[in-house]
Amino acid sequence: MIGDVVDVDLLVATGRVMPEEALAHLDAALDAHLLEPVDGTPTRVRFRHAIAREVVLGAMSSSRRTELHLHVACALEARGGRGAAHVAQVAHHFEAAHILGHRVEAVRYLRLAAALAADGLAHDEAADLYERAAAIEDDPADADDAVLLAARERLLTGALVRSRRLAEPIAADVTSPHRLRAAVQYEDANWRSNLVGGRSVALLQGALEAPGDHDEELQVRALAGLARALAFDCKDAQGRSLADRAVARAREHGGDDLLLDVLVAALVQGNSVDDADLKLACAAEVTEVCLRTGDLWRLGPAASYRTLLGYQRGDKALVRSGRDDLRLVAEGTHQPYFAYLGGCVDFSRHLAAGRLDRAAQTSETLLEIGAAVELDEDVGPDGQYGVQQFVLRREAGGLDDVRGLVSEDEDLGERWVPGLLALYVELGMHDAARRALRWLLEPGAIDSSPGARVGVLTIVADAAVALRDEDAAGRVRAAIAPYTGLNLMFGSLVTAMGSADRYLGSSTRCCPRATGRRTSPGPRRWTGTWVRTCTSRTRSRRTRRPTVRPERAAATSALSSPRRGVSRRRSARGACCACSTRSRGRGRGVPTA
Q1: Secondary structure of the chain: what % helix, strand, coil (to 5)?
Q2: What is the signed CA dihedral for 169, 170, 176, 178, rounded to 10 degrees?
Q3: 384 neighbors 451 (Cβ within 8 angstroms)
Q4: Where are the beta strands (DSSP E) in 365-499?
Q5: Three-state secondary-structure class, residue 46
Q6: Chain segment 42-68, per-residue pLDDT in tens
Q7: What are phi and psi of 43, to 5 degrees?
Q8: What is the mean pLDDT of the chain?
Q9: pTM of the model
Q10: Alpha-helical regions (H) of 49-159
């Protein structure tokens, strides 16, 4: 009842008999070898066998157990003490006895225990405690408050799906005074998975338009979140306008916390060279404030965006500094989410330099880390792993190993079509590739997955060149044009895809009628081996196993050898899972900062 190990004085205090009689019963239990002293001391005892404890508890009626929980809670409370373990113990016993009229005490101690757990970075434990408090809370508004605190703690563990599930019902409840706060919380969990922003937009707009008094900070955070959700919904002009308003109001209001949140939200806006300059200035400001105040939570997104912007601009020093800060954040917050983002940077750096063996090892590590990050119900870490394995095997000449896993009549409604298209093109299955390309070019289809939108465009561009499809080339050129002068990537550097100018140039040379002018690929400052070769799609297309260049022989051997730690069979499955059912959401779930 009290625990596995019990202090004798607490045991005596919780009994309903005189201390002398309680001690006599205790001696009898010790003599019968039901209990035993702990470490040979007479002041602490425990059951000799756990099963004996369960038998004793099972013999009690539920009402008797509830009554004893109350006695223990009151005795512990009388002892005093504010330590996390003590408060959690008091909370547990009051919770078990709350039906005896002690609901207020139970909720108070559960919330206090949750706050102490959060201070100790035990965010899962804190979320559990907040949810337990909400479950027995009488007041609906206070219950919603506890649920939203739990949603915040879930987010901090990387459990983004559970965070959204907790926040969404409150955000949709027109009677809840915490509706706007819940909508902000939902969007904050949603954007980190790079999911489309439609549901976030609906919840935020509904809450903002509803009558009610909202404090200035919450309104500004809601505007910033709405701007970010609109950007993920491909409504760039609306998003940029709202983001500018939110930043201006945050600067007027003052306070580092609000300004940092709004600036982090503004980092997603825009996709041109000029926008990249604005994003970099924004990320630099967030980084300066975070390093000055020791705020690692907000430093993480800023560090991730600095690595993304560094790669986009071809700035190796910026990538390195951002990666260093991501490592600091991951170690300081114990969040696997930021460790995953940092690992993606490492993978892309190895890939761009042609270090395929190290990239493959990093990909395996990311698969393990990703299992602890809950991005989306339908997408697991194997989706990103599949994309990485595809590009690795494409460069190493190992895609023929997956030929038998892919058929030309795959159900496009049950597959992630961009991954399937990439495999079809590389394996020379051109009829199937044309079918997949037409499916992707349905109205709005190539813009339906903002998380992987840029990466999907590179796949479509490659396919258009390989199939000599002038219509597709023209459409994808228009979509890639805003990125002129920048490098492209999947998600948060899940994998690097090389220079946008190279894709524009190759489609122009291959399909000159797709545009009125010819654009040659411009040089990039980050010109790793993979970036130089893999993105020049004017090279002859292969229908069989790719030729491995001499300078890649060692890396190819390491990738293909079972002794490397990843068997050919598993690697082949990984390459094929780039188009698997679990990734069928047209690019959903690729994580961002």
Answers
A1: 70, 5, 25
A2: -170
A3: no
A4: 487-490, 495-499
A5: strand
A6: 666 666 666 666 666 666 777 877 888
A7: -90, -10
A8: 80
A9: 0.76
A10: 50-59, 62-79, 84-96, 103-119, 123-136, 140-157
